[in-house]
Write a structure and sequence with these properties.
This protein is mainly alpha-helical. 81% of the residues lie in helices and 0% in strands. It is built from 3 helices and no strands. Helix 2 (17-61) packs antiparallel against helix 3. The protein is rod-shaped, with a radius of gyration of 20 Å.
């Protein structure tokens, strides 16, 4: 994600107000993209940690539950991927020119 954000950074012309507004929008869009991806991956990590712990405990008690809980863990890990997709969409709207 940082590589995508880095390619968006450019200098801008301060002479026109439209350029300044576009620069503010692009800066806040890149910042929002980073925050979105960070929070989504943090929640993904918490979700995988909690369900992984539950999966280990459930597998110790009943081995047939492992695959069922593993599917739930995969859904939890998809949150991080959704966060990256939303971050890419937000960053694609940013343009300093």
């Amino acid at each position: 994600m940082a590589i995508i954000m880095q390619t968006k950074l450019e200098s801008y012309d301060e002479s026109t107000t439209t350029s300044v507004y576009k620069a503010y929008f692009a800066g806040y869009a890149i910042f929002a993209s980073g925050v979105t991806v960070g929070i989504a991956n943090l929640s993904c990590g918490v979700c995988v940690g909690i369900t992984g712990s539950g999966c280990a405990l459930a597998d110790a008690q009943n081995a047939t539950l492992f695959v069922k809980i593993l599917v739930i863990e995969i859904f939890g890990s998809a949150l991080g991927l959704f966060g990256v997709i939303v971050g890419i969409i937000i960053t694609s709207k940013a343009s300093f020119t």
